[in-house]
What we know:
Helix content: 10-25%
Number of strands: 13
Number of domains: 1
Largest sheet: 8 strands, antiparallel
Strand content: 25-35%
Structural class: alpha+beta
CATH superfamily: q2cbj1_9rhob like domain
Shape: globular
Number of helices: 2
CATH class: Mainly Beta
CATH architecture: Sandwich
CATH topology: Jelly Rolls
Distance between the termini: 15 Å
Order of helices and strands: EHEEEHEEEEEEEEE
Amino acid sequence: MRPLALPDAFTPEECDRIVALAEAAGLSRAGLVGGLADPRIRRAGIAWLDEAEGAAWVSDRLARLVADANREGFGFALDELAESPQVARYDAGEAGHFDWHSDIGEGPVARRRKLTLVVQLSDAAAYAGGALELMPGTGILAADRAQGAAIAFPSFVLHRVAPVTRGVRHSLTIWAHGPAFR
């Protein structure tokens, strides 16, 4: 199942507003599903937008994008967005990255993830490295680096954020949930 590109999900100005909202909410050290932390696997700061005042418009837009992407490319049985949108900050000064993983994990919420949508918040010129790479089959695909571009893919698809080697990369992620795949 191929990822679906959504090239103009947010404007550059909206992306900058989202980063400002996340920074105002405060970034914490990112962990893994189940509360584990391993900097060899993931090194990033994160903010949950449900904790950011004035971010409801972001969740509304993401809900529409998820519904459109699912209708256009996947046809999954989805019944909720059970988690807050997450802004991640990958900083070259900290060797920011997230090694190969899928988004389906342990726990009652993470095991119900079916569709992942990631928005590129940073201008591509603001950083080097940091590519979002997906492995939906035998080859590796790189997501669009244009500010405001989004990509939707099944949450079981392996993907990673390559190490950022210069600057800072911000992204926005939401997961759509539903009954188990059958």
